[in-house]
Amino acid sequence: MRTGLPTLALLFLASMSAGAAEPQAGAAEPQAGEAIPETDAQFFAELGYKPVATASDTARALVILVSEGEELGGDYDACRRWLRQRGILPDGWLSEAGPDEVATKGRLARLLCKALGIEGGLWMRLLGPRPRFALQECAYLDLMTRGAVYRHVQGGELVGVIDRADRFRTTGTPDEVPQLEGDPSGAREAVP
Amino acid sequence: MIRFRPWMVTVLVLLFASGVRAAAEPAAEAPAAAEPAAGEPGDAQPDALTALVKEVTGTVEARPAVGQEWVPVKAGTEMVEGADLRTGFRARCVLDMVDSLVQVQPLTVVRIGELARRDGQVRTRLILKHGHTAAIVEKERIESDFRIVTPSATLSVRGTKDAWVGFFPDTGGSYGLGGPGLVGVRDHLLGKQTQCRPGQKTNDRIQPPGRLLQGKFLPVNLPGAGLGPKEMFAAGRWNTSNPLPGGLQGPGGPPNLLGKNEGQQKDPRLPILPSRSNDICQEGNGKNGMESPSW
Q: Within this chain, do residues B186 and B228 fall inside the same structural domain, yes or no?
């Protein structure tokens, strides 16, 4: 009985660390016959419903972000080749990951920093864009929310990150307030 | 010790059965109770309206109803109630919805939940799955009931220009008003409502009270552009003109639960700045409506 409790605690810790190292690997398996989105609007809309963003989703979204709207389609290898040409890969994960591997916050933050040229603070400049530093920097810039680096990225979260990253790049702030001009048709009809 | 007798078991079974039956039946009885009597104002049939697509930039697709095919949208396309709209990267779309102009921003999925005229009032409900929208709502010349619904809160507009809503699953919703008017935001989880005046924004992120106070009172978050140097130091602290937390307001005030402002004491010669009317709203552009201090 004396050794039972420590053994249970060790088993619990081992299961927790195993779960942290492999974040829901089975959750992102594509269903048979699933069609690859053709347009970027379809891609991002369907990505918003996915519980987990995969490596192929991340590669395609990054290509669209970096190229400012250019679409390479759902070809995972073509996307990685394009990112490698731009110097974003290798990054220690996406360059070797299978298409269905789960994206985590740390991995995504590191890719984002390389894609947007975010240099970060002292430690990130000294030690490079390590996932933890990269995530802290992205959270500081309001591009991503804080969390554990090994936590998986939801599909909708990846859409939000791409949206804020593009706003940040074009306007310097992720809080762009749109300006609208004009009157609705009902108001014009109501005027005598 | 309680002994269950047969009659007690019977009573319990009967009570349980009646409860189950009562839970199952209201669905059948409710419509009869909800039907208005003939001649009442509620029995008018709503006139269906259509939204007209005015401008399109980039890849914008729509479908008239769930289960139908998505087709590209062009300027001049008419959309009916129940239609879905999605935009791609850097794609935008402006919809004329009779009582309002709505701009759908990039990477957005939105549904026209309701668009009809009932008893002379135009009712508009936009259901935002994720993304950003902005709207101009005409209230002076049209009787309008305009709302944008996100998964976490509802923004209702009370005659305004440049009301905007953004929602993503990781950050939650953010709501604000860029032009004149007033918007109300009701949280779906708590049922709490707040209002945003021109230049203000709010969000529906739930924070623990200590974190909320930290964000409001520690020297962080007001942009310097809208404040003079005297206003910056008005409360004896750096980079903020927010009023002091309760714990630093002297005897009689609420206790200081933070413990992080202990070194920042109030200067007794300075007046206490007026507290802001809305606790949740944050200033978006540095115009916080405070008058210039006279000292």
A: no
Per-residue pLDDT of B189-237, as tens digits, reads 778 888 888 888 888 877 677 766 766 666 544 444 444 444 444 444 4
Q: What pLDDT digit, counting tens, does each position of B26-51 carry?
A: 443 333 334 444 444 455 677 889 99
B11-19 mean pLDDT: 65
ipTM of the complex: 0.79
Confidence (pTM):
0.67
pLDDT of residue B78: 93
Most A CBs within 10 A among B50, B63, B74, B89, hence the mutation to make, goes to: B89
Contact predicate A129/A120, CB 8 Å: yes
The alpha-carbon gap from B289 to the nearest alpha carbon of chain A, in Å, equals 20
User: Which residues are CB-contacts of B150 (< 8 A; sequence separation ≥ 6)?
Assistant: B128, B165, B167, B173, B204
pLDDT band at residue B93 under the 50/70/90 scheme:
very high
How many domains is chain A built from?
Answer: 1
8 Å CB contact of A182 and B99: no
A35 touching B (Cβ < 8 Å)? no
Q: Which domain holds residue B55?
A: 47-203
- Looking at the structure, tell me whether residues B259 and B241 fall in a common domain: yes
Does residue B8 lie in a domain region?
Answer: no
Q: Residue A181: CA atoms inside 13 Å, Cβ hemisphere, count?
A: 0
